[in-house]
Amino acid sequence: MSAIEAEELVRRYTALVFNLALRLCGNRADAEDLAQQSLIRAIQALPRFRGEADPGVWLYRITVNAWKNSLRAKSARPVLRFFGLEEKEVLSEPDLPGPDPTPERLAEAGEAKARLDRALEALSPEERAVLVLRELDGRSYAEIAEALDLPLGTVKSRLARARAELAVRLGVEENDDVR
Amino acid sequence: MSAENDDEELSAYLDGELDAAARERLAERLRTEPALAERLERLTSASAAFRAHGREPEPLGLAARALAEAKPAPSPRGWRYAFVGFALLIFVLGGVALKKFMPTLFNNVQQMITGAASQMGSGGK
């Protein structure tokens, strides 16, 4: 018997896995695919999971590995296209608001949320992932390092840089609003 | 100390990830350096902004779809049971086919098995 049942795993982590996927991918469509694929892989691997690691950390690691694999696949596509082995793909536009969001979007998401989303665009996917695991799931640096397969020092520096950059961007926007 | 190093220390301080000595050193600096205290406040605000507005709702039905599409792979024990069941089925079907198409051979095999069984029974007494 596995350390956690599939229903419990999905109930506890679907929202967090989706948020992690969203900050890695940058748009909801790809994030939904990545989150679903990761959850399916995790459920299928559950009989072999015996609780040596925290289930959340284990699932985040599956998600990050799936994201890295999708990046590798995307980087291989131009070569396949060159040899005519793959049809051209229409890249989806990021769902994160751009520098000039529509009034509807602002009204829907709220000014503060839209401002945060714009600020997040200045961060790398890995920095946003560190933020999700720390701020939304309260993970320790050691757990984040394990989930993202990073040295502890890198987690510390990325989190600090992400917060500092957010602080600057949010501060700059506040100042712009004042002008 | 550089601004980047300060940010790393402040960020770890915010998360309770500094050891006692480093925490005490930083607390002392925060008491005497207003610029550093202001920097901590900015990092705290950024952290709070993400906590408050950084969570996006997941798509409806995502969990249900994942559960429906994931059929757990059979466990190693499941495979063992399946293999034993399959072997038994082949044995029985083989016996039925032998009896139907090669009755003489079937009788010989049956006698061999019966003889071996009775020998084992008498040897055990």
Please sum up the structure shown.
The complex is a heterodimer of chains A (179) and B (125). Chain A is mostly helical and 179 residues long.
Overall geometric form of chain A = globular
Number of domains of chain A: 2
Task: Look at the structure and give the mean pLDDT of chain B.
Answer: 87
Q: In CATH's first tier, which class of the largest domain in chain A applies?
A: Mainly Alpha
| Elements of chain B, N to C (H/E) | HHHHHH
Q: Residue-averaged pLDDT of chain A, rounded? A: 84
Low-confidence runs of chain B: none
Assembly context of the chains: heterodimer
Q: Give the terminus-to-terminus CA distance of chain B.
A: 91 Å
Can you count the beta strands of chain A? Answer: 0
What would your notes on this structure say?
The complex is a heterodimer of chains A (179) and B (125). Chain A has helices at residues 6-25, 28-45, 55-82, 103-109, 111-120, 125-136, 141-148, 152-178. By secondary structure, chain A is an all-alpha fold. Chain A has 2 domains: 1-95, RNA polymerase sigma factor, region 2, helix turn helix motif (Rna Polymerase Sigma Factor, Chain: A), CATH 1.10.1740; 96-179, Winged helix-like DNA-binding domain superfamily/Winged helix DNA-binding domain (Arc Repressor Mutant, subunit A, Orthogonal Bundle). Residues 86-94 of chain A have low confidence and may be disordered. The longest helix of chain B has 26 residues, at 76-101. The termini of chain B are far apart. Chain B has 125 residues and is mainly alpha-helical. Chain B is built from 6 helices and no strands.
